[in-house]
Structure formats: C-alpha cells, structure tokens
Amino acid sequence: MTGNMDFLRNGTVIVSDPKDGIFIKTKEGILKVLEIQGENARKMSIQEFLRGNSIEEFEVFSEN
Known about the structure:
Blueprint: E1 13-17, E2 21-26, E3 29-33, E4 35-36, E5 44-45, H1 46-52
Antiparallel strand pairs: 1-2, 2-3, 4-5
C-alpha cells in the first residue's frame, strides 16, 4: 500500500480480504489485524473470521 492516505479517518478499513486480511489506517500508519476475538467468543485468525463474517472496506471503527 503506497500513497498518501491522510484524507481517510483513523480507524478506516483499507483492505478487507479473506486471503490478505484486514488493514486499518491509524494515526501512526497502517495496522494489519492478525487475530480477532469477539465478546464471549474464542480467538481466531482474521482469515478464519472473514470466511464467516463481513467487514467492509472503508468501514470506520470508532475510537470509543
């Protein structure tokens, strides 16, 4: 991923792909999500999570 992404809000999903994973814009750069764990759920790889769930590109996670 190259280029200036300052126009995107922090917390914006840049890539969401079951093969490549999830990349999120942060204040310091780009965060690659490796694992995820929902409330009262087991920890799983992001690839496993995306096979059964959807997180859309350009969705914004709240800072709250």
